[in-house]
Specification:
single chain; 209 residues; alpha/beta; nine-stranded mixed sheet; two-stranded antiparallel sheet; 6 helices; 13 strands; binds 1-O-pyrophosphono-5-O-phosphono-alpha-D-ribofuranose; binds uracil
Length: 209
């Protein structure tokens, strides 16, 4: 069974409090999403292996640590996942970026695919899928299925707010994928929105409502 890690860092919790407030405007919302993404990515990369490398300091030669094998990719689920890319890139700047376009049909809540462009060598990369919201889980489950169909094997999922329903769906569909969550909320409402949540993440990042 995969790991489900809910962040307990006080800075992450404080910043999630800021983006939940309905009066937080687009600029602050977007910047804070990016900062939270950076911190979740820091936690989600704890397992990366290190190698010893010999270097020269201005004083003497010594052995330092270097990340071993740097083939990584960040894959945002459009649109809202785009808001997490810059923050994640601050932690893993050499990562390639793929894009998966999915939107939730407002009636059925089922994901509808409209775009997929991934690094040519994505099957050899460790992939970090980012999307601020894990609600029913339909979008993230579908995105990860698409990645597996392209041959990706090492996949992690990073989100800012999750509902228990989405976590369950992810674990059932993809028990091999570790899930990193900023905050685990109570439930979904009758429209499939996370409660207490933060509203529509895409609209708040891009100012479209
Ligand atoms: C939101 C969010 C997730 C999805 C989560 O995207 O960013 O992708 O809903 O819901 P689910 O877990 O029930 O699938 P949305 O479909 O609103 O599209 P947008 O990012 O373009 O606004
Ligand atoms: N998508 C969002 O943007 N917010 C929710 O609460 C659920 C899905």
């Amino acid at each position: 069974m995969s790991k489900v890690m809910v962040m307990d860092h006080p800075l992450i919790q404080h910043k999630i409090g800021l983006i939940r407030k309905k009066e937080t405007g687009t600029k602050d919302f977007r910047e804070t999403i990016s900062e939270i993404a950076m911190m979740i990515c820091y936690e989600a990369t704890r397992h990366l292996e290190l190698a010893d490398v010999q270097i020269e300091t201005p004083i003497c030669s010594t052995t330092v640590k270097e990340i071993k094998g740097r083939k990584m990719a960040i894959v945002p689920i459009l649109r809202a996942g785009l808001g997490m890319v810059d923050g994640a890139l601050k932690m893993i700047p050499a990562a390639k970026i793929g894009h998966i376009g999915l939107y939730r049909d407002p009636e059925t809540l089922k994901p509808v695919e409209y775009y997929c462009k991934l690094p040519a060598d994505c099957a050899e990369r460790e992939v970090f899928v980012v999307d601020p919201m894990l609600a029913t889980g339909g979008s993230s489950v579908a995105a990860i299925r698409m990645l597996k169909e392209k041959g990706c094997k090492k996949i992690h999922f990073l989100c800012i707010i999750a509902a228990p329903e989405g976590v369950k769906a992810m674990q059932e569909a993809h028990p091999d994928v570790d899930v990193y969550i900023g905050a685990l909320d109570e439930h979904l409402n009758e429209h499939g929105y996370i409660v207490p949540g933060l509203g529509d993440a895409g609209d708040r990042i891009f100012g479209t409502k």
